[in-house]
Amino acid sequence: MGDLLESIRNGLPLLLEQVLNGLQLGFVYALIALGYTMVYSIIKLINFAHGDIFMVGAFLGVFGFTYWHLPWPAAILVAMAGCALLGVLIERIAYRPLRAKGAPRIAALITAIGVSLFIEYFSSLKFVFGPNYRVVERPFGDFRWSLGGVGISSIQLLVIAVVLGLLLALQYVVYRTRIGKAMRAVAFDMDAARLMGIDVDKVIAYTFAIGSALAAAAGVLYALAYPQIHPFMGIMPGLKAFTAAVLGGIGNIPGAVLGALIMGQVEVMTAAYISSEFRDAIAFSLLILVLLVRPAGLLGKAGPEKV
Amino acid sequence: MSKGTLRTLLAAALALGLLAGCGSPQGSSQGGSGGDGKVIKIGFIAPLTGDVKTFGESARNGFRLALEEAGYKAGEFTIEVVEADDRNDPTEGKNVATRLITQDGVKAIVGSITSKVTIPIAELANERGVVMITPTATSPKVTVDDKGNRWEFVFRACFIDPFQGTVMAKFAAEKLGAKTAAVLYDKGNDYSVGLAESFRQHFEAGGGEVVAWEAYALTDTDFSAILTKVAQANPDVIYLPDYYQKVSLIGKQARERGITAPFLGGDGWDSPELDYATMAGGYFTNHYSSQDTREAVQNFVAAYEKKYGQKPESFGALGYDATRLLLKAIEEAGSDDPAKIREALQSIKDFPAVSGNISFDENGNPIKAAAILQVQPDKTFKYIDAILP
Questions:
Q1: Do B84 and B101 have their domain in common?
Q2: What is the mean pLDDT of residues B11-35?
Q3: What whole-number distance in Å separates Cα of residue B120 and Cα of residue A283?
Q4: Do B26 and B141 share a domain, yes or no?
Q5: A302: pLDDT confidence band, cut at 50, 70 and 90?
Q6: Residues B112 and B143 in one domain
Q7: CATH number, domain at B316?
Q8: What is the pLDDT at residue A286?
Q9: Looking at this predicted complex, what is its ipTM?
Q10: Cα(first)–Cα(last) distance of chain A, in Å?
């Protein structure tokens, strides 16, 4: 009995530390997942280029504080602004013409995959970002505090604080502003919203801008936390965040955050207590299990698919 | 040219022809016209264009330097050279090797550079009874077939993959006094797995304990979970046998987690793009160091710099070593019969090569020391020691 208590006392700080590792990862996934879910809720498109916008954001942010000598919070803002523009541009050039012609949703989906590959390979060109891996030099020192045996690092605090701040800001935009109201209206019923005089194209552009800005912030945080960037770095986090969005219920904002936090914990706990080899296998099997039980995701509304 | 020599040549050509099943002994006819001496043709195969062309070019620099220093002579033989480009493509490698053996009539080949190209060439050379020595192909499968039977005619001048793990385990235990180690490796990379397993085996055999054994995948970027475990296990050293990009990424995340144990690795660290600041103080095994004070090394470095205007890296050194080993074997054999050259090569003892004093084991792999280098914050590698397994 004493041994058991002893081992719990020893294992607890380690467990809490792993929970923190999972939170750090989960919060970054959450920012990416929000972009997927917001775009989906409005135009029912899975924007596969989203992971690549995350990558561009990481590059812009890192260039910001290394080559352009911006303070790092300004670098995050520059990356967010740049990617918001990029998101709107992609929507304007690649998706809106298809929507205007009434193309089937599968066409838009395949276009999204094309855009994704284009961004990846265009970025790999020597005169753009280049194909090499770059080591990120952090613009601030690494600190580490120990609270009762639980270690927490400055980068973990930064990630959690920035993501919570952005989530609150998003909550405010969606529920307290005119554009947020318009977004909710378009998500609920696009045709009715248009009849009520809402400029649907404008609302869609705003949605892309906000989602892409969040992905850019996630990219910069990711580059700070896991300090290496390259043009294909967006693929895996993009896929994981997409999974998180589906897990939580695609189209549902709190669902995306919940799904992302679960993904982060499952990955880290698998690596910590089972084996690193199983982390992706278990994370994705969880998705399948949840969808078998709740096809609409954890917080998604069950209902007939309106296709 | 005496009658006896001619007879030897013809016998050799006949032996080659029998072994090869087809003979085109051009080399011997040229030997006849040489007048005062005998001629032996040797081939050189390396990737001189394509994705790893700098590897091939460096090896060729070493190859040519060795021949020049020997005056294109080995014993009483004059060396004729046929160079070929395999473009780092296994099919092209086999094509040029076939051409060298059947049309040009080479008796021995130096090459190729990467394991994937060298393996088919080795199989062909062995089948045709032509001596082959690769400067740099490290896969164990270069000198043995799938069942582990030795390809008699095939040798190499570099160590094989698992050897690096063995050497590093010994260095960690004996020189660093490490009692416990953590091992992190990429489960999808044969190189990384091979080094990790041999390190664990020999570190444990030496009385050490592996307190964390963690695999990851190529696509992983978040190592927080396994590094938290490593920090908890608090090892004396961390063995991380991977290429420089992953090494830099994992190193950085480990340091920020307060892990201060030195990192150890293999020749995959040897790159100007390694994160020197983070990895400073870490040790890795390599084929040779230009800072080694042995006479063979310093003479080579001086000659290479004089001829090519740059410091030789491992590929140049190993190309040089492979060529000199072959010349030595031809001289010892006193014959251009590949079977005799093969025997002479196998029985070479403690040959003072740049990458160590070389003897061959039963699989044609050199028994020699590995250089241990330490990463310095000023973007250089410092030569620490040479360790025998």
A1: yes
A2: 43
A3: 41
A4: yes
A5: low
A6: yes
A7: 3.40.50.2300
A8: 87
A9: 0.81
A10: 59
Smallest CA-to-CA distance from B323 within B302, B306, B345 is with B345
Are B172 and B203 in contact by the 8 Å Cβ rule? The answer is: yes
Q: Which tokens sit at A213? A: 């800005």
Q: Which amino acid is at A43?
A: I
Same structural domain for residues B362 and B342?
A: yes
- CA–CA distance, A58 with A51 (Å, rounded to integer): 11
Q: Which residues of B touch A235 (CB under 8 A)?
A: 219
**Residue A263 contacts B where some CB pair is shorter than 8 Å:** no
> Looking at the DSSP assignment, which residues form a beta bridge with residue B140?
none
Q: How many CB atoms lie within 10 A of CB A244?
A: 31
Say how many C-beta atoms besides its own lie within 10 A of residue A274's C-beta.
12
**CB pair distance less than 8 Å for A135 and B225:** no
For residues A42 and A188, give the distance between their C-alpha atoms in angstroms, rounded to a whole number.
8
Q: Quick one: B111 and B32 in the same domain?
A: yes
Q: Residue B124: pLDDT above 50?
A: yes
Compute the average pLDDT of residues B17-24.
43
pLDDT exceeds cutoff 90 at A137: no
Q: Which candidate in A20, A276, A279, A284 is best for mutational testing of the B interface (most B CBs within 10 A)?
A: A276
Q: Report if residue B277 sits inside a domain.
A: yes
For residue B374, tell me if it sits in a domain: no
Reported confidence tier of residue B34, pLDDT bands at 50, 70, 90: very low
Regarding whether B197 and B280 lie in a shared domain, the answer is: yes
Q: What are the tens digits of pLDDT across the range B195-220?
A: 999 999 999 999 999 999 999 988 88
* A-B C-beta contacts closer than 8 Å: 80
pLDDT bracket for residue A276 (50, 70, 90): confident
H-type alpha helices, B257-375: 276-279, 295-308, 314-333, 338-346
For residues B118 and B38, state if they share a domain. Answer: yes
Give buried/exposed letters for B220-255 (b at 16+ CB in 10 A, else e).
bbbbbbbbbbbbbbebbbbbbbbbbbbbbbbbbbbb
Q: B122: domain range?
A: 3-159+293-368
Which phi and psi (to 5°) does residue B333 adopt? Answer: -70, -30
Identify whether residues B183 and B302 lie together within a single domain. no
- pLDDT score of A2: 60
